[in-house]
Design a protein that fits this description.
The longest helix is centred in the first third of the chain and has 110 residues. The protein has 5 helices and 34 strands. It is α+β, with helices and mostly antiparallel strands. It has a 4-stranded antiparallel β-sheet with strand order 7-8-9-10, with helices on one face. It has a 4-stranded antiparallel β-sheet with strand order 11-34-33-32, with no helix packed on it. The protein has a 4-stranded antiparallel β-sheet with strand order 12-13-14-15, with no helix packed on it. Among the domains are: 61 residues, Double Stranded RNA Binding Domain; 263 residues, TolB, C-terminal domain (Neuraminidase, 6 Propeller), CATH 2.120.10. It starts with a helix and ends with a strand. Strand 16 and strand 17 form a beta hairpin.
Length: 551
């Protein structure tokens, strides 16, 4: 079977039909079977045909007939006109033209076609290999995304379990609080009932004495009125509030007494980098120093974290540097600020922005290029920056003589809110040379550090002042000097106190919680927090950044 199959593949068929060839026309270079010989001759009666057995064939070029001279073959090629020519054409319209033999032209063109065919075949080989590689990539990609989908489902279960744990703990906490308060009320109720019985007995005995004429009954009486007066008739059982803050798509937080839980999506722009962080956290009794980074920037100004292990930092020159947790310089931006950027921040998309005081502009760095984001009117100059969770920009600004300050909210380049005066039409901020830095809390509260007034001011999202903090509860030796402010995932407010070498931590409603002062903080200034919830503190004079685990 193999032999016949191979033979069948080697059979040469007639050029006019599919039968095996037997003869060959040397004149026309055509393979013919026995049935097609006469057909071939009849179709070309004007031509001379040299029919021979196929094995005696002579392969040669078949020249085309001249269109101008009947019965003449074009055996030449005019180089000037790039057309086939016959012998008679050389004495006519192509007289004096350079003519090559057609066989030479055909050979030359066949060599070019051969080279081109070889190159095409190499393309085919490359395409086949590339196609196979793409098939493999498609297979790998499909498998990786299947794995990712499975991992996503596993994470879904894990996250649901974590949320269930939070609310199980919450319900357990509520039940325990209820049981303790009910027990207290019932205990007091039982005490009152016992006291009531005792009081009735005493009353009964006293009435007997009043009716008695015996001196001894009266003189032996001992008053119990003082003790009775000390028995409380009511008890105040405080019921804690269940506080919840829900910002759709960004944060869910609940708080009941000392129990706090927060579900936070730290970024809305990148699914790969910005995942939600579920945590039930509290302040550590003793903070831990994770790293001490020497920036080489003295004095060190504002800082802002990027991701987990990097920070933008600047000082009193035109350069803003990006430094990792090991102190390695990763990038730097040279600005044209005069004299230097007064504050820096990072947008939700990770783009660096900074305030240029003298030119009254807020600048943004996009793909290595510096562009103008906002230009202020001539009477106002930008000071502090804060990129909010919703994508807005909070910008504190001052007049040219630094006598007035205000905070303005921008959506894009449009100002949508101004905070300058309180409900009594009095300035919210004190004028002076040190300025106002600004931060947004998870609840939407606007927290400002009024350095000229040595005060922290917290306003709700409408701009109404909720409370002020002057550092008194911390009981420090020197005057409270709030240099910078930030808020964390627990909605706590953290303030760097430059004079007292410490950080003040407040809960979101202004209650003082504690100070951080036992980790070598000397003149703390800039503050930021990374995605792992670690605190980065810039030490102005030392040009150093300390990374602190405090939760």
């Amino acid at each position: 079977m193999a032999t016949s199959s191979t033979w069948a593949q080697d059979v040469i068929t007639c050029d006019l039909c599919n039968n095996p060839t037997q003869q060959f026309c040397n004149s026309c270079q055509v393979s013919l079977c026995g049935d097609c010989i006469n057909k071939h001759i009849e179709s070309l009666k004007s031509e001379t045909h040299d029919i021979v057995p196929f094995k005696d064939r002579r392969e040669r070029l078949v020249f085309s007939s001249c269109t101008f001279h009947p019965n003449q073959k074009c055996e030449g090629h005019c180089q000037q006109c790039n057309v086939p020519v016959c012998f008679r054409c050389l004495t006519g319209p192509h007289s004096g033209h350079t003519v090559k033999e057609m066989s030479e032209v055909v050979q030359q063109m066949k060599e070019e076609i051969k080279k081109e065919t070889e190159e095409i075949e190499s393309f085919i080989s490359r395409f086949v290999i590339s196609g196979a590689n793409i098939d493999q990539k498609i297979s790998n990609l499909t498998e990786k995304f299947k794995t990712m989908e499975r991992e996503g489902e596993n994470l879904r279960k894990t996250w649901h379990e974590e949320v269930d744990n939070i609310f199980d703990t919450l319900q357990s906490t509520i039940r325990k609080m209820k049981d303790r308060r009910l027990a207290a009320l019932r205990s007091h109720q039982s005490r009152l009932q016992d006291s009531e019985t005792n009081l009735q007995c005493i009353t009964k005995e006293n009435k007997k004495i009043l009716k008695s004429n015996k001196v001894s009954d009266v003189t032996s009486y001992k008053s119990e009125l003082k003790d009775l007066r000390d028995i409380p008739t009511d008890v105040d059982v405080k019921i804690p509030s269940l506080n919840s803050n829900t910002v759709q798509g960004r944060e869910l937080s609940i708080e009941l007494g000392e129990y706090k839980a927060t579900l936070t999506q730290t970024s809305l722009s990148s699914l790969t980098d910005e995942v939600s962080n579920l945590s039930v956290r509290k302040l550590l009794d003793k903070v831990k120093i994770i790293a001490s980074i020497s920036t080489g920037i003295k004095p060190l100004g504002p800082i802002i974290c990027i991701g987990t292990n990097e920070v933008w930092a600047c000082g009193e020159d035109k350069v803003i540097q990006r430094i990792d947790i090991h102190g390695s310089l990763k990038d730097k931006i040279t600005t044209d600020c005069e004299p230097y950027p007064s504050d820096i921040s990072v947008t939700r998309q990770g783009e660096l922005i900074y305030s240029d005081v003298e030119r009254r502009k807020v600048m943004i760095v996009r793909q290595g290029r510096i562009e103008t984001l906002i230009t202020l009117s001539p009477e106002w100059h930008p000071v502090g920056l804060c990129c909010t969770r919703s994508g807005d920009l909070l910008l504190s600004m001052c007049t040219i003589n630094e006598s007035h300050y205000k905070i303005v909210r921008y959506q894009g380049q449009s100002a949508t809110q101004e905070i300058e005066k309180d409900e009594c039409d009095q300035p919210v901020f004190k004028g002076g040379e040190y300025g106002v830095c600004v931060e947004e809390n998870n609840s939407g509260d606007i927290c400002a550090c009024d350095r000229d007034a040595s005060t922290v001011i917290v306003m709700d999202k409408t701009g109404r002042v909720r409370f002020r903090y002057d550092g008194t509860p911390a009981k420090r030796n020197d005057l409270f000097n709030p240099e910078h402010i930030l808020t964390d995932s627990l909605s706590q407010i953290i303030i760097s106190d430059f004079n007292n070498d410490c950080l003040h931590i407040l809960e979101q409603n202004g209650q003082f919680l504690r100070c951080i002062d036992n980790c070598g903080l000397v003149n703390p200034a800039g503050l930021s927090v990374d995605r792992e919830g670690r605190l980065w503190v810039g030490l102005r004079a030392w040009g150093e950044v300390k990374v602190i685990q405090y939760l």
